[in-house]
Amino acid sequence: MKIKEKLIELILKLFASITILTTIGIIAVLLFESISFFRSVSIFDFLTDTQWTPLFSEKHFGILALLSGTFLTAAIAIAVALPIGLTIAIYLNMYAPKGFRKTLKPFLEILAAIPTVVYGFFALSIVTPFLQTIYPDLETFNSLSAGIVMGIMIIPFISSLSEDALYAVPKSLKLAAFGMGSTRFQTAFKVMVPAASSGIIVSIILAISRAIGETMIVAIAAGQQAQFTLDPTIPIQTITSYIVQVSSGDAPQGSLEYKTIFAAGLTLFLFTFTLNTISFWIKKKYQEKYE
């Protein structure tokens, strides 16, 4: 019997370690290929040059051009998702009947289950033509429509996680605020939101991380022109869309141009890893506060 239990325990440990081993393997591949890339390209030029043209005859390897596109679309997405998602979370927690809350929340989470390629074509074929009726100079491929649709996609990340954080606030705080004569609006913004601020911040950070790592929406709707710009009306390229472009056969495997995807991927990994670490740290502090 003990042998069976140890065998089961060993199998469970093996399956539990798969994610860790997979992560280690990804990091190892990124580091190995990136080191090979930086033997030919100066890391200083990589971090400071504002042009990214590794597939052109005049080659530049400035990651800032891709970073500006990545953060521009992510910023637009958060600007859309944050007020809508937080408003939904407050409504579900403070105003909505319990039955309606249980019905609406699963429907919101369906937004996160829609394939991102569908969002991409929606941005290109519906949102962009609509925006062009308002801004005639808007390019067909642009970061504005991609960012708006990406914001719609990440609304569930903010609304669901923020609502969970608000729901976790002790009911005694809410009842005490009502007992002192506060309205629902005052209780929501002066008591509940500050008390759940750590959880809300975590949801925002996770949503930003999801937006930075999005691929298909920006690949379809934002274009493939790496430009160091903050203009949302022109085509841009993000790190993820560049990786898709090169991986689809635009550069011979093993060439310096091909190795750029590993350097770009390592940069993206470092940013998302940092954001996830910050969210984990904030969540840990939040849990310790109420234990």
Describe this structure in words.
The protein is an all-alpha fold and 291 residues long. It has 13 helices and no strands. The protein has helices at 2-16, 18-38, 43-48, 64-94, 98-110, 116-134, 143-167, 171-179, 184-195, 197-212, 216-221, 239-250, 256-289. Helix 7 packs antiparallel against helix 10, helix 10 runs antiparallel to helix 13 (256-289) and helix 12 (239-250) runs antiparallel to helix 13 (256-289). The longest helix is centred in the last third of the chain and has 34 residues, at 256-289. The protein is globular, with a radius of gyration of 23 Å. The model has no long low-confidence stretch (mean pLDDT 87).
In a few lines, what is going on in this structure?
With 291 residues, this protein is mainly alpha-helical. It contains 13 helices and no strands.
Main beta sheet strand tally, sense and closure: none
**pLDDT < 50 runs, ≥5 residues:** none
Mean pLDDT over all positions? 87
Order of helices and strands: HHHHHHHHHHHHH
Radius of gyration: 23 Å
Shape: globular
Calculate the terminal CA-CA distance, rounded to whole Å: 39 Å
Estimated structural class: mainly alpha
Strand content: under 5%
Percent helix, as a range, is: over 70%
Secondary structure: number of strands: 0
Count helical runs: 13
